[in-house]
């Protein structure tokens, strides 16, 4: 065996790096992400690499030592609300922990904001009599009859998994363990999670929300990992499959099936790691701004004195004010909706905006010819001559200048009474300004001077915008 493969599934493209350990040669490959079956996009990339080597996909995979995979499967499922149905068993009197969150409000004077709904509806959170105190001593014994009744209700309601979230369980998990045993007796085979295992920390909300999120993702990650592993094995893969975690490390797929929450932010978590590595290798610097501009988002991370920051405040949906936190430590990466697929649009007052909505990979920008009808940053870059229509994806994918010009003319230029080039130029300028402002805000919050920090960038769209971002 001589090959190692790394694959990252993004919102628009699926990227792959192939290393030949015997020769040291590195190949890079890119295909359109297949959002309705992410496994297909992964295999398309591997086939592209095999074709480039002049061998079959089975020969390539049979000679591959390991595959390291960054996935957006769980992140997308959370944001889109396509998670499993979860039932929660909690301590009596604390049924509303998930609804009340941590008691504060991010924008206390903004009365126009609706209170975000709880991650789990209240009827699916059932309290049982029990109590462990802060020293781990049993104040009240577990009422097993109530537990069995709760499980029967969950079975009737057809939940996909059960979360066990009791007070002070990390100090003494005896009651959570017993509830787990009762679940196995009453409903064999139903997945369940104990909060003292998923996130054994003080403070109820973050322990509870992490446990519930983990349970909700079991069905998603279980199906995805099973499909991916089966597809790879059928194609001849016998090596190790590793998944990138939210803390910037890797775990094998078997471990992550039981702890899918660790895959949230899987791909972006490697941004500061890779940026620091390249900065040290090329310039011997350890103060770094790492950015990644892909098709859907613009990711940003700062590294100061060679230290990669972790945060406990990452949210399920970063754009939602007051929404639920993930509850676990993740690499500190900020994200804004600015990428090659970001859609340009005009508001009722006649002002031009770009993003945060994205055309993604399906249908993608109009110039792809896949049926996209919205003007995007990629369309503007093509009209401005920054992209070669005959050499997109190394000449493997044809893009259409006439479609890009047509969509910008009809939806932007004509409405603003400007020509097509001016319309494309304004889209390009606005997206650059949005990214520059986001970087400035992040730098100010982190106490970092961008003028003395090395900018390391990546992503399929970044090269076109790099100079303007650096100057800004």
Care to describe what's here?
This protein is an alpha/beta fold and 472 residues long. The chain folds into three domains: 3-77 and 221-268, Nucleotidyltransferase, domain 5, CATH 3.30.420; 82-216, Rossmann fold (3-Layer(aba) Sandwich), CATH 3.40.50; 270-472, Nucleotidyltransferase, domain 5, CATH 3.30.420. The protein is 37% helix and 21% strand. It has 14 helices and 21 strands. It has helices spanning 38-53, 57-62, 73-80, 97-100, 144-157, 174-186, 195-198, 204-234, 253-258, 271-283, 377-383, 401-416, 420-446, 462-471, and strands spanning 3-9, 13-20, 26-32, 64-70, 86-91, 125-128, 131-132, 138-140, 161-165, 192-194, 240-244, 250-252, 288-293, 298-304, 307-308, 310-311, 330-331, 334-336, 342-346, 352-358, 454-458. The strands form six sheets. Strands 3-2-1-4-11-12 form a six-stranded mixed β-sheet. Strands 13, 14, 15, 18 and 21 form a five-stranded mixed β-sheet that branches. A hairpin with a 5-residue loop joins strand 7 and strand 8 (138-140). Helix 5 (144-157) packs across helix 6 and helix 12 packs across helix 13 (420-446). The mean pLDDT is 90.
């Amino acid at each position: 065996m001589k090959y190692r493969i790394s694959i990252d599934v993004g919102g628009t493209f699926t990227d792959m790096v192939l290393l030949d350990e015997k020769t040291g040669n590195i190949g890079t490959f890119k295909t359109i992400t297949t959002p309705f079956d992410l496994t297909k996009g992964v295999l398309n990339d591997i086939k592209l690499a095999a074709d480039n080597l002049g061998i079959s996909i089975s020969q390539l995979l049979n000679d591959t030592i390991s595959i390291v995979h960054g996935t957006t499967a769980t992140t997308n499922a959370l944001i889109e609300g396509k998670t499993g149905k979860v039932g929660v068993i909690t301590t009596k009197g604390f049924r509303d922990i998930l609804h009340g969150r941590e008691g504060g409000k991010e924008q206390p004077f903004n009365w126009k904001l609706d209170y975000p709904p709880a991650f789990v509806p209240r009827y699916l959170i059932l309290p049982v009599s029990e109590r462990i105190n802060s020293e781990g001593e049993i104040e009240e014994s577990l009422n097993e009859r109530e537990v069995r009744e709760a499980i029967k209700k969950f079975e009737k309601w057809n939940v996909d998994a059960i979360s066990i979230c009791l007070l002070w369980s990390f100090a003494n998990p005896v009651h959570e363990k017993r509830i787990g045993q009762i679940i196995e007796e009453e409903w064999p085979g139903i997945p369940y999670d104990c909060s003292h295992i998923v996130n054994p920390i003080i403070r109820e909300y973050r322990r509870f929300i992490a446990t519930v999120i983990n349970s909700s993702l079991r069905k998603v990650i279980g199906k995805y990992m099973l499909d991916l592993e089966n597809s790879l094995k059928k194609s001849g893969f016998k090596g190790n499959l590793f998944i990138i975690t939210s803390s910037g490390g890797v775990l094998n797929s078997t471990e992550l099936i039981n702890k899918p929450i660790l895959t949230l932010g899987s791909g972006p978590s490697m941004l500061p790691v890779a940026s620091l590595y390249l900065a040290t290798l090329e310039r011997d610097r350890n103060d770094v701004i790492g950015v990644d501009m892909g098709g859907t988002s613009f990711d940003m991370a700062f590294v100061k004195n060679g230290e990669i920051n972790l945060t406990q405040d990452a949210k399920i949906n970063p754009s939602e004010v007051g929404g639920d936190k993930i509850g676990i430590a993740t690499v500190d990466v900020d994200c804004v909706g600015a990428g090659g697929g970001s859609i340009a649009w005009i508001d009722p007052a006649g002002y031009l905006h770009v993003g945060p909505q994205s055309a993604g990979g399906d249908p993608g920008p109009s110039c792809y010819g896949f049926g996209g009808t919205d003007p995007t940053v990629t369309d503007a870059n093509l009209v401005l001559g920054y992209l070669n229509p005959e050499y997109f994806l190394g000449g493997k994918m044809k893009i259409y200048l006439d479609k890009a010009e047509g969509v910008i003319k009809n939806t932007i230029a004509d409405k603003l009474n400007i020509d097509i080039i001016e319309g494309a130029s304004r889209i390009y300028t606005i997206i650059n300004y949005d990214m520059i402002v986001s970087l400035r805000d992040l730098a100010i919050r982190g106490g970092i001077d961008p003028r003395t920090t090395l900018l390391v960038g990546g992503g399929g769209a970044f090269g076109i915008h790099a100079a303007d971002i650096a100057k800004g």
